[in-house]
């Protein structure tokens, strides 16, 4: 063996923290993170979500505080989910100008202006008494086109209350086009649409359904959300949303779908968003609580991996905590 062997020594660039920082290919920054938040009507104190330690159903006031903290930490955006006091078959509270999300939007815009991008989840499942993402036919199926009319109306209510970005998450065919047309027709052509373009029918949404009180009363979401077995149809969904006017496209969940994040990143030239969902959060928190993994390292690794796979923007319930750590 020659004295010089091996010549190539990849370890040279891993020797010190300073060197590793210098050569890192992927960086996390607070500006790339979006914090999902829940606001509930008719409660006087924030309620902890049992399956998501550290996450709360907020009152309007506690939400203002959480939003302020996120903005101060440099978090790029917030996405709002509302839980109304009254639910019905049409999800009427969703587009009520005095519905909980619309009230919260006005609060946040008056407190924070454009200091942080205020987004909304646009769906019906938190608002319907049956817990489905749309209007049901007499036989209990989701009526796609009747639901689009509801989504268009919700988009207007959210835009008028101050949403800068609306995020349709119901996986109805044509939802982005219907919302774009409604927004443009009402003078809201400057409101952006973040398509939940690739959304799988995932067991990882379990804890969210407690947080948002939106578990379906019967059946599931498999007739509209994607089958985890499929990858190619994700690109079809993405291109349909872009044709209909989506400004950004999302892949959801993130951690178990990093191959899809990469395929979408390689196929489009708009920002790619990935949603690290409630189950991803709950698994890490639960294992850390048992002392089985290092909580902070696992959180950071999970987020760097989502960015490395190709996501420009990451929705994560840890956004404020991580932004503070990065500062
Ligand atoms: C639908 C919606 C869901 C999530 C975000 N938007 C639930 C669902 O489709 O059943 C899940 C997010 C998470 O699990 O963190 N409004």
UniProtKB/TrEMBL annotation:
State the UniProt keywords alphabetically. Heme biosynthesis, Lyase, Magnesium, Metal-binding, Porphyrin biosynthesis
Where, by residue number, does 5-aminolevulinate 2 bind?
Answer: 278, 317
Q: Name one GO molecular function term.
A: porphobilinogen synthase activity
Tell me the Pfam families matching this sequence: ALAD
> What is catalysed by this protein?
2 5-aminolevulinate = porphobilinogen + 2 H2O + H(+)
Q: Domain of life here?
A: Bacteria
Task: Give the EC number(s) under which this enzyme is classified.
Answer: 4.2.1.24
The pathway entry for this protein reads as: Porphyrin-containing compound metabolism; protoporphyrin-IX biosynthesis; coproporphyrinogen-III from 5-aminolevulinate: step 1/4
**So where does Mg(2+) get bound?**
237
One Gene Ontology cellular component annotation held by this UniProt entry: cytosol
Gene Ontology terms describing biological process: protoporphyrinogen IX biosynthetic process
Task: Name the catalytic site residues.
Answer: 199, 252
Query: What is the enzyme's main class?
Result: lyase
The UniProt family comment states: Belongs to the ALAD family.
- Protein role: Catalyzes an early step in the biosynthesis of tetrapyrroles. Binds two molecules of 5-aminolevulinate per subunit, each at a distinct site, and catalyzes their condensation to form porphobilinogen.
Q: What is this protein called?
A: Delta-aminolevulinic acid dehydratase
Name its species. Answer: Actinomadura luteofluorescens
């Amino acid at each position: 063996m020659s004295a010089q062997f091996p010549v190539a020594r990849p370890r040279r660039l891993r020797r010190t923290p300073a060197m590793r920082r210098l050569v890192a290919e992927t960086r996390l920054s607070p500006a790339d993170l979006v914090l999902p938040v829940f606001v509930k009507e008719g409660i006087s104190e924030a309620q902890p979500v049992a399956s998501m330690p550290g996450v709360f159903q907020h009152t309007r006031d506690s939400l203002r505080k959480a939003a302020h903290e996120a903005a101060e930490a440099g978090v790029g955006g917030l996405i709002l989910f509302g839980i109304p006091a009254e639910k019905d078959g049409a999800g009427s509270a969703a587009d009520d100008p005095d519905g909980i999300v619309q009230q919260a939007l006005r609060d946040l815009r008056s407190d924070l202006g454009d200091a942080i991008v205020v987004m909304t989840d646009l769906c019906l499942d938190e608002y319907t008494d049956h817990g489905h993402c749309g209007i049901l036919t007499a036989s209990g199926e989701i009526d796609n086109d009747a639901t689009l009319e509801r989504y268009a109306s919700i988009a207007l209510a959210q835009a008028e209350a101050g949403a800068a970005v609306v995020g349709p998450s119901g996986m109805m065919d044509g939802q982005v086009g219907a919302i774009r047309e409604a927004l443009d027709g009402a003078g809201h052509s400057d409101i952006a649409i973040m398509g939940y373009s690739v959304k799988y029918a995932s067991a990882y949404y379990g804890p969210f359904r407690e947080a948002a009180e939106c578990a379906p009363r019967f059946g599931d979401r498999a007739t509209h959300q994607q089958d985890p077995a499929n990858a190619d149809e994700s690109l079809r969904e993405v291109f349909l949303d872009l044709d209909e006017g989506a400004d950004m496209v999302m892949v959801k969940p993130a951690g178990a779908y990093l191959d899809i994040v990469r395929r979408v990143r390689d196929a489009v030239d708009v920002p790619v968003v990935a949603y690290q969902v409630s189950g991803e959060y709950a698994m890490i928190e639960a294992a850390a609580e048992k002392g089985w993994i290092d909580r902070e390292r696992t959180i950071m690794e999970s987020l760097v991996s989502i960015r490395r796979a190709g996501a420009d923007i990451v929705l994560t319930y840890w956004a404020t905590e991580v932004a503070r750590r990065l500062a």
